[in-house]
Amino acid sequence: MSSRHDTKVEWSEHALAQLAEGGHRSGGARAAVIEMLAGQGCCLTAQELHEALREDGSEVGLASVYRALELLASMKLVHRIGIGSTAYYEPADPRGDHHHHVVCDSCGDVSAFEDPALERAIDRLAGRMKYRVSGHDVVLHGTCPSCKSE
Q1: Is the Cα dihedral 96, 6, 30, 52 positive or negative?
Q2: pTM, two decimal places
Q3: Residue 39 near residue 8 (C-beta atoms within 8 A)
């Protein structure tokens, strides 16, 4: 079984190889965005990603971050997750592994979760509807423990 670090390295290498195979350069902003996304535990907005890059000393502009994310999303190398009116991005595991998200409607905190029973329920639903489901996003909304106790 591979570690979380190995999975991130695997995604980063996969993304760079796919860019090269598609005839896209992988330097500059694209490489910086891929490297930063590979190091994240969950999804980020383009603005959060830009701020993290700036904190790391990168001079990549916000427009370049958006262009890199849109290219990566169009190549299915990142998942674009719409939460409210905001787009969040995270690496798309080349093996198809994924997680879902829960959002605090009070503070905006976004947390990842996995639930095998939910995955089985989605598979059963797809079977009953006679659909071949190619992907799904589950975003739950509520109040996080910190906000609930206030």
Answers
A1: positive
A2: 0.79
A3: yes
